[in-house]
Amino acid sequence: MSRATSYAVVLAVSVVTTFALTPLVRWLALRSGAVQVPDADRVHEKTTAVLGGVAMYAGFAAGLFTAWRLGTFADLFRSSEPVGVLAAATVIVVIGHIDDLKDVSAPAKMAGSVLAASVLVLFGVSMFVLRVPFAGLVQLTSDWSYLLSVVWVVAMCHAINFIDGLDGLAAGIVGIAATVFFLYTMKLSDQGFLSATNIGPLIALLVVGMCLGFLPWNVHPAKIFMGDGGALMLGVLMGSSTMVVGGRVDQAFTGQSFFFYAPLVIPLLVLGVPIFDTAFAIVRRTAKRTSPATRDLGHLHNRLIRLGHGHRRTVFILWAWTALLSAFVLVPVYTGRGDGVVPLGLGGLALLLYTVLHPSLRIWSKDEHGPQGEPAVAVPAGLGRSAGSTPAATGGAKSVYKVPAREAATLAAELREPMVVSDGRQIRKKAARQRAERRGAPPAQAPRPRRKR
C-alpha cells in the first residue's frame, strides 16, 4: 500500500469514528448532566452537552491504531513517540473534562497542561534545534529542549482553548491549520528534508480527521461542545506536531526568502488567529490588572458580534482569516514564487473591508424599522453604543439605539442586559417620558379619542 493511500485510510478512520461516536457521547452527556448552561459569559442560548472531546479522542486513538496496523508506518512506530502523544492526549482530555464538570481553577488547569507537555518530552517528543533570527541554527541542550518544548505546547493549548467561544470556531480553525501544515510537511518530505520516521505529519492528519468528524455536530446551533477537554487536546496535538517538524528540520527550506524563520514560524501563521487572540487577551487583562485566566467578552469573536455580525458569519470570517494566513504559507512553498502572494494581499484587503464595513452597510440599507416593518431592538444607552447600531428616532435624545431584532439574543448576552423588542413609536414614547422626567415635568398624556355623536 502506498503512503498516500495509507494516509487516506487513516484519515477516513478518524473522521468516521469521531462522527459516529459524537451523538452517542452527546446522549451520555445529557443523561449524566454533563452540560453547559447559558450564562452572562457565554453566547449560546440553550443548555448544551459537553464532553465532545471524548469522541474526538476516540477518533484520534482509532486513527493511530489503524496507522500502527498498516505496514507503511512500521518505522515510525518503532520509537516511543506515538505512545507519548497518546498518553499526553489522555492526560489532557481527562483534566480538561474535569474542568468542564467541576470548574477547576486556572492554576490547576495550567499545571495539567504542563503535565501533558512533560509527558510528551519524557517520551521523546521535543525540539532538537531552534532557528534564531539572524543568528543561525542553535542546537538545544536537554534542559533548553525540555523548557522550550513545554512552553510551546502549553501556549498552543491555551491559544486554542481561548478561541473556542463560538459554535464550530475552534474545530474549523484548527482543521484548516492542520490541513495546511500537513501539506507543508508533505512538501518537506518530498524534498528529503523530513525523515519518514517523523510523527508530525501523521498527527496533523489525525487532527484534520477529528475536526472533520466533529464539525457537523458542532456548527451553529451546536448539538454538543468539545469542552476544555477537546480544545486542550487539540492544543497538545498541534503543539506536538508542529514541534517535531519545526524543531527538527535544520535546513532552511521555505520556498521564498521572506520565510527565513521557517519552518518554526509556519505554525505561528497557520494558527495566527488563536495566537493573536491569546496575546491580545493577555495584554488586555494585564492592563486591567486582572488575571490572564479571567473570562471576559473581549475576544475577537465577541468583538465581531458586537460589530454587528451574526454568530455564523463571525465564525466564517475567522475561518476565512485562517485560510488566508495559511495560503501565505502554501503559495510560496508550492510555487517558489514570492509574487504569488500579491492576490492573497488583495484578498486580505477585501476580507478586512468586509469584516469592518459589512455590518454598517447592512444597517444603512434598511429604513428606520427594517425591511417590511422588521422590529428594532432598543439598547439602553447606558451600556454604550453598540457598533453597527443606529440611533433610534427619539427626537434628538440618544437614550436608546436599535439593531436588527434577529441579533437580540446574541447582543443581550454580550451586553449582559435584556433588550426590548419594539417599534419606532414605542421608542419615541419612552424617550419622551425620560425627557419629561429629567425636566421635572409630568409626561404628556395621550389625548382621549372623541366620541362620535
Q: Averaging pLDDT over every residue, what do you get?
A: 78
**Record field, number of beta strands:** 8
The total tally of domains equals 2
Instruction: Count helical runs.
Output: 15
Largest sheet, in brief, is:
4 strands, antiparallel
SSE topology string: HEEHHHEEHHHHHHHHHEEEHEH
Largest beta sheet: strand ordering: 6-7-5-8
Q: Cα distance, first to last residue? A: 97 Å
Q: Which blocks of ≥5 consecutive residues have pLDDT under 50?
A: 254-261, 363-407, 414-424
Query: What share of the residues does DSSP label as strand, in percent?
Result: 5-15%
Helix/strand class? mainly alpha
Global Rg = 26 Å
Question: How would you characterize the overall build of this protein?
Answer:
The protein is mainly alpha-helical and 453 residues long. The chain has two domains: 251 residues, no CATH class; 68 residues. The chain has 15 helices and eight strands. The protein is globular and about 85 Å long. About 14% of the residues have low confidence.
List keywords for this structure.
mainly alpha; four-stranded antiparallel beta sheet
Give me the secondary-structure topology:
Elements: H1 3-32, E1 35-36, E2 48-49, H2 52-69, H3 81-102, H4 106-122, E3 129-132, E4 136-139, H5 142-163, H6 169-190, H7 200-218, H8 227-246, H9 266-270, H10 272-287, H11 300-307, H12 311-335, H13 342-364, E5 376-380, E6 390-391, E7 400-404, H14 408-415, E8 420-422, H15 424-439
Antiparallel strand pairs: 1-2, 3-4, 5-7, 5-8, 6-7
Compose a concise summary of this entry.
The protein is mostly helical and 453 residues long. It has helices at residues 3-32, 52-69, 81-102, 106-122, 142-163, 169-190, 200-218, 227-246, 266-270, 272-287, 300-307, 311-335, 342-364, 408-415, 424-439, and strands at residues 35-36, 48-49, 129-132, 136-139, 376-380, 390-391, 400-404, 420-422.
